[in-house]
Amino acid sequence: MIRNFIRLAWRNLLANKVYSAINIIGLAVGLAVCILLMLYISDETGYDRHHKGADRLYRINTAFKNKVDQGKSATSNALLAAGLLKDLPEVEQAGRLLSPFFNSDALVIEHTEGARRKDLFVKNAYYVDSTFFDLFNYNFVAGDGRTALRSPNTAVLSADFSRKLFGAEDPMGKSIVLALPNGNFTYKVNGVFRPAGPSHINAAVFLSMKNQDFGLVVDNISNWATNNIFLTYIRLKAGTDPVAFEQKLNPFLRRHGAADIDAAGAERLLSMEAVEDIHLHSHLPYDVGENGSITYLYILGSVALFMLIIACVNFMNLSTARSQKRAREVGVRKVIGALKGSIMLQFLGESVLLSTLALVVALLLVQVFLPVFNTFAHKQLALLQHPAILYWIGALTLLTGLLAGVYPAFYLSSFRPIKVLKGQLVNSLSASFFRKGLVVFQFSISIFLILACFITWQQLHYMQQRDLGFNKDQQLVLPLLTQEAAGHYELLKDEIAKNTRVISVAGGNDYPGTNPHFDTRFYTDGKTVADGASVILGPVKYGYLETLGMKLMAGRVFSPDYPSDSSAIILNETALQKLGLDATTAVGTTIHFDKKKQRFDSHVIGIVHDFNFKGLQEPIKPYGFILDRNTPANLFVHVNTADYGTLLAELENSWKRINPGSPFEYTFIDKDFERNYTREYTTARIIGGFTVLTILIACLGLFGLAAFTAEQRVREIGIRKVLGCTVGGIATLLSRDFIRLVLLAILIASPLAWWGMHHWLNDFAYRISIQWWVFPAAGGLSIGIAFLTIGSQAIRAALANPVKSLRSE
Fold this sequence. Notes:
By secondary structure, this protein is of the alpha+beta class. 49% of the residues lie in helices and 19% in strands. The protein contains 26 helices and 24 strands. Strands 4, 5, 6, 7, 8, 9, 10 and 11 form an 8-stranded mixed β-sheet that branches. It has a 6-stranded mixed β-barrel with strand order 16-17-22-19-21-20. Strands 1, 2, 3, 12 and 13 form a 5-stranded antiparallel β-sheet that branches. Strand 4 and strand 5 form a beta hairpin. Helix 15 packs across helix 24 (727-761) and helix 17 packs antiparallel against helix 20 (644-658). The two termini are 37 Å apart.
């Protein structure tokens, strides 16, 4: 019987090639999109799940709160890890990772072998405790993670970085040199690893926290309130209740650091975050790397589901619309004894066969378009990288076949054989209403996605064009990573300033687009540190504000003509507001901060307009500039040229003349700032591409229905033409009903899109207002697409010879 069902299904597909092709293509595109997004979602949800005891692995976050302000950070105090491991028996292991600050994760590493020397710039190099590889699993291809970092000045390298530095040579036991601004420090390679799975810590090099370059500073930290620049990780013992344990964190902190915390003027509150949740759920300052978003996964998953449903809707619509052509077959089979269940099984079998054929096409589409998708998504996905996904793909295909075929099977198997064989069957009102409802559903989703694309790209355009309070364009950043480069700061600055393509040059540490790592709690006269506001501090050199185009609101900038500027500060508007100062009288006032139980003064010499240091998702924070007494971490070059190739070549020549032993590296502020919007751009590109495919699938179904409608009304069209109806009139007649359905879809989708996108925009501190014109624009685009789809069939029917149409009838 099954063989007979398959043979009948195959014959039916071949007998109706156009409709079969429409269904197969629609289902194939829907399945291909689902497979691509399944791969993406599987990768995104797989972060940090491969570690030993991953369900017991947590990061300790810190919240800061006082009378004036509050905030939360992924970082914590240097003493926390060892204290928790010692005092709380529920902690099985603990360790720290130094949060990247002032380019601490960007290093120049040197290796000398005889007369051959190689210098490499490396990003994502992190100092960690020796217990790090007990907490996190990596596949060591050389060395032992349990002991690799126990000795001071040891390092483990990723296999990729090891290949770049050592080639095919065995790096184990060899020496590398960290060329830092405060000197060169030798490390011994004790291991080589490959990632065991995706992780929020994407490292190329791990360095022992015990070292000679800054390890003594870390070891001498004794204050429980300051130096919150470490990421603290713990693994709880099996059977520990994490909720009950978390309640012990703040009493623990008060026992050890109450005096330090009270002196700092802001309460510290500790909380735990599961490491498995960090990538998708954590959006805290000072996270390591760029995280994903669970919200965007829900959005992408919904897009994939809707596309598949739309493809299934096409099958249902075309199957029920063409019911008259299958009616006699059903009637004959019922007369000769076929049961309703066997007829349903046959139609479901046809649907599953069709979805299986669609799967073959979908897999080909996935293989062809996966490289393009990887480029959009910034991934390296492969179809078989997760073998278990094959089971999901098989289940998805079966589900698609059943979902697409269940209503047609019920509908077609319910025909009464007597009426069918007498030719009395007509399309029922309920079936026609159902088809129209499905068309409305399809286009409601399509219009919703069109509106979502419009509004998303408007917000992204707004983020690109908004005045950020500084000039991010044509701003070049040269990191001063080595002692040689740092020592030649003034010489390099003067040399670059001579270039005719350069407007100005200045030094500084932080810059917009990166994470600042230095803040102090200031307070005004008559108040205490407990009444103060936390102000992010940016150490800068003369000319920094002018080079980056910060807009001075009052007062002046730093100048070598004023020796007292060594204790001066320039505040932004938000800092003034938090400190309770007035912009008209703030210049010349003195604000205070405490350090080691002593009060220090800073006099305000200028006010700058607010500027966005991070992306527009975050509100502007209090910021203050101070004069840097030390060598800056970066050199900023404001240029005026369209020929960047020539400019960079000239700057590299200048660099190599002055710093022959240091590699020339650069970045652009606008590119670094754009990284704050990586999630948004990635999601917008994916949704934009899939919106086009969604519209394509919906139009395929509409094309099929229009063709069938024109075929059913061929006699009517012939009579109207004989009576003088024009081609345009007939095309309008055939298109009118479908356009009405699209108009209804516009009315349904518009308020839903407004509601959904309004909630999405709430994630941004600075956002657009949804403009009224996007709704008629999306509606007009939808009507135009629908009319083009229907019109081709309508015009074809209208141009047919009426004599032939009536003769055939």
